Amino acid sequence: MKRIERFKLLHTKPSARYLLILLIGTFLFLFHSLSATAQQMNENKSLRIVWDNDYINLRGDGSDRYYTNGMRIDYFYTKKQKAKFPSSLLLNISDDNSNIYGLGIAQFMFTPKNISVPDIQYNDRPYAGALYSILSLQSIDKIEKTKVLSEIRLGVLGPMSFAKETQTWAHRVIEVTNPEGWNNQVPNDIILNYNISIEKQILQPSKKMLLVGIFETYSGTVYNAAGAGFMLRVGKFINYFDAGPVPKETERKNTQLFVFMRPVVRVVLSNALLQGGLINRITQNAEGYTLNKDQIERVVVLYDVGIAFEKAKFSIMISQKSIGAEFKGQYTQEYGSLSLQFKL
Questions:
Q1: Domains and CATH numbers, the chain
Q2: From the first residue on, what is the mean pLDDT of each consecutive set of 10 residues in the chain (344 residues)?
Q3: Given 62, 103, 109, 140, which is the most exposed site by the fewest CB atoms within 10 A?
């Protein structure tokens, strides 16, 4: 029996073996990054948990379709010393060593409109899952009133993301429709993306209103796109572009409560969660179901509106998000997002 198992392992498809090695390497990369920077961290540490789901919807019409669930956990910290590899690959525009670094892990899953059908639903969204680690840096130039968020994402998409197992387990626990079509999901592939978001203060007519311009790029194996938009914040808040750090005593006393909106228009070159990834395109893998490039919508409109409450030790943000059609035949989807952040 052991010989048979060894034989099967040795004769596993090369792409699957490489991706299994990558999955293990992803978590080793995350562990190494955390270990390598542990001695450089100071007291400014926090934990953020973000949950997206199409049932967190104020209209009450959760659907279990398209982008159906996402979970992301980030550990944020500042450094006492100059950043080393791989953190040195991120964009630093700050002169006062107030950069906020992050280590995170995320899992996202996507389904077609009808999850009770086991067969391929042609011309609909493919089943797809993604699991990846995140190395990030938030850097602010308070003189130029500019913020740059850069991220490196490393992981896998396809069955190795365990999206099928996660959704099947969750639906069994809450006793709703079991997803039947995950056997047709986008094949295993590599995720390696470098994402940049630039925010520039445009206008602050009063302490209770802030207008920020946004430019973003996504480059890599899973998503290639560029977008632009703006963010409007109204309420009681501390402007993160203001020169000089906020005194801790002032921060402890301040309570922030504000609403915001964030529309963005994005031009999309490729999306591996719809089309399959790099290895899939090179090898012309026939497994799973994917869309071709002519089925992809090249211009996508995204909209985010929400409310945030922040204290010195914790914050909570609830928002409703809208995303336009990502492929021909899709319609606009709305889903909710809940974010909790705690200072450690």
A1: 2-343 (2.40.128.140)
A2: 38 51 58 52 81 80 82 92 85 85 96 93 95 96 94 95 94 90 94 97 95 98 97 95 61 84 98 91 80 96 96 94 94 92 93
A3: 62
Query: How many CB atoms lie under 10 A from the CB of residue 153?
Result: 23
- Give the pLDDT of residue 10: 36
In angstroms, what CA-CA distances link 261 with 28, 78, 343?
37, 28, 25
173: left (phi over 0), alpha (psi -120 to 50) or beta: alpha
Distance CA 65, CA 55 (A): 10
Tell how far CA 320 is from the center of its chain: 16
